[in-house]
Design a protein that fits this description.
Blueprint (H helix, E strand, L loop, with lengths): L3 E5 H4 L6 H11 L3 E3 L7 H10 L3 E2 L2 E2 L14 H18 L3 E4 L10 H22 L2 E5 L15 H11 L4 E6 H7 L3 H8 L3 E6 L16 H10 L5 E4 L7 H12 L2
Parallel strand pairs: 1-2, 1-9, 2-3, 4-5, 5-6, 6-7, 7-8, 8-9
């Protein structure tokens, strides 16, 4: 089975380019889906265009605020309400997952305590996600380059949360770029933890750029390992093209079409 690939259009679509021709080109290349980060004014248009060009929507945002998230118990009521709304939208539109964030580390709170708080927050909403058939995908991000202070910055932290919640619908958004920056050992980590992964993001390292010989990740090998694992969700491209975005997307598609 070939990997289902998606495009993070807010990252890749050229500025001042209308959305429809971009979506049409993405479909022509062979992509299966686009993905949405926010529910801004373009959300409805993007969903409509995806359907017009026979694309799915792979994932969408689940709650507000990356830096103030599930590791803060004072935010649990807010986040639960926002996640319920997002889960309803995702279920209605056939979107398999929504994105969640741990939030930044809080001064004076140990990692063990923070994991327990995050687990508590996810347990509140997990039964609703299970009933609706939507995954809660907590994103792994690097703290070295892009997101200083973010807590869920290693795969082990995220996996610990998933194991403790122990829900089939609580998973990780495994961002390959971010985890290469933080820890490397990408293929082994994916193989060992695939049951907890509900979505992938890609980009070249260093620079979050195209898949070419200036970066250090072997995406053919990585995507072959993902395909062999039986994974059946999406691999979403989230890089910043150096030049023509359609050429970069076509090259990424061919490399990851394993």
């Amino acid at each position: 089975m070939r990997i289902k690939q998606s495009v993070c259009y807010p990252m890749i679509k050229p500025a001042n380019t209308p959305l429809e021709p971009f979506v049409a080109r993405v479909a022509d290349i062979g992509y299966a889906a686009i993905e949405l980060w926010t529910r801004d004014k373009s959300f409805g248009e993007a969903v409509t265009l995806a359907r017009k060009y026979n694309l799915d929507v792979a994932i969408m945002s689940g709650h507000n605020s990356l830096t103030v998230g599930l590791n803060d118990p004072t935010q649990h009521d807010r986040i639960e309400a926002e996640l319920r709304e997002s889960i309803d939208i995702a279920a209605d539109l056939g979107i398999p997952g929504v994105i969640c964030f741990s939030g930044n580390r809080r001064e004076g709170v140990t990692e063990k305590t923070s994991i327990a708080i995050t687990v508590e927050g996810l347990r509140r909403i997990a039964p609703y996600a299970e009933a609706k058939g939507v995954n809660l995908n907590m994103e792994l991000l690097n703290t070295t380059v892009d997101h200083p202070g973010y807590e869920c910055n290693h795969s082990a932290w995220g996996v610990a949360v998933c194991e403790l919640v122990n829900s089939p619908n609580v998973k990780l958004l495994f961002d390959i770029y971010h985890m290469q920056v933080m820890e490397g050992n990408i293929i082994s980590t994916i193989r060992n933890n695939i049951r907890w992964i509900g979505h992938f993001h890609t980009a070249g390292v260093p620079g979050r750029r195209d898949f070419d010989d200036s970066q250090e990740l072997n995406y053919r090998g990585i995507c072959r390992a993902i395909a062999e694992s039986g994974y059946n969700f999406y691999v979403g491209h989230e890089f910043k093209p150096k030049g023509d975005p359609y050429e970069a997307l076509a090259r990424a598609f061919e490399i990851c079409n394993q």
